[in-house]
Design goal:
About 25% of the residues lie in helices and about 40% in strands. The chain has helices at about 10-20, 30-40, 60-75, 140-155, 175-185, and strands at about 20-25, 45-55, 85-90, 95-100, 105-115, 125-135, 160-170, 190-200, 200-210, 215-220, 220-225, 225-230, 235-245. It is globular and about 55 Å long. Strand 3 and strand 4 form a beta hairpin. The protein has a 10-stranded antiparallel beta sheet, covered by helices on one side. It has a single domain (about 30-245), classed as YwmB-like (TBP-like, 2-Layer Sandwich), CATH 3.30.2030.10. It comes from Pelosinus propionicus DSM 13327. InterPro entries: DUF1779 (IPR014794), YwmB-like_sf (IPR036209). This is TATA-box binding.
Length: about 250
């Protein structure tokens, strides 16, 4: 299995925004994704949260982008100095980024100015927050998601947030076990499968559950839970990824 790649660029986020209408309300204090992971029998090992929002102003100078990044980084308790902030120029895209890797955790805060989609002479700006962390006994991805929502809401509108939990089982599933695993996973949150893609050693199923408030409206149907299961011969593990509203990491 290829290692899960990190999602930190605004392009993927914008594609989500253009392809589907997203509904959002603050998450409940339960842990539906963790319940799904437990139902699969996999050990929860890590999680990732991706959040993004369009900033309220059309134009931001590099200094203003940096101020936004520093404001968010400070509230996330990232220990940064001004000279550690990365400035990048990619064609007409201007990016200001802070990144911190510590004790297995990776936090990225990025503000980006890009050409307006309707008029290249104009600009629009976005804020992206990515957090990846190994789990521990006190881990609550829901509480962290709520914290990120609160921080970003102070700067702009409600952010679009995607959460992924990653776990695995040792060895390869036997015939019929994969189907049973998916059934147990969706049953754990009274979910309904909307679509499923299956290959020899891989399956991805998307569905909807009222236990999760966030959702995407795709093809007239609501989806807010995405489960992918894949066997890796490299390390003889069966990987399980649970994402909401969809998986935003490569697997």
């Amino acid at each position: 299995m290829n290692h899960i790649l990190r999602l930190g660029v605004i392009t993927g986020c914008l594609l989500l925004a253009l392809s589907a209408a997203i509904g959002y309300v603050p998450a409940a204090s339960s842990e539906p994704l963790a319940s799904v992971m437990r139902a699969t029998g996999a050990n929860l090992e890590e999680y990732s949260i991706n959040a993004w929002v369009k900033l309220p102003e059309d134009h931001y100078s590099d200094e203003q982008l940096q101020d936004v990044v520093m404001q968010v980084a400070d509230q996330l308790a990232m220990d940064f100095k001004n000279d550690e902030i990365i400035h990048q120029q990619r064609n007409k895209n201007r990016i200001v980024k802070a990144e911190q890797i510590r004790s297995g955790d990776r936090v990225v805060v990025m503000a980006q100015s890009v050409p307006n989609q309707k008029s290249s002479a104009k600009e629009e700006a976005y804020l992206v927050v990515n957090i990846e962390s190994l789990t521990n006994e006190g881990t609550s991805s829901v509480l962290l998601q709520e914290k990120i929502h609160t921080i970003i809401k102070k700067i702009g509108d409600s952010p679009r947030i995607s959460t992924c939990l990653i776990g695995w089982l040792d060895g390869k599933l036997m015939d019929g076990e994969l189907e049973g695993m998916l059934k147990s996973a969706f049953s754990a949150i009274d979910g309904t499968v909307v679509d499923q893609l299956q290959q020899e050693q891989y399956v991805s199923a998307t569905g909807y559950s009222s236990a999760i408030h966030e959702y995407l409206q795709v093809g007239g149907k609501k989806i807010n839970i995405n489960i992918a299961i894949r066997y890796s011969q490299y390390d003889n593990r069966t990987y399980v990824i649970v994402g909401s509203p969809i998986i935003t990491r490569e697997y």
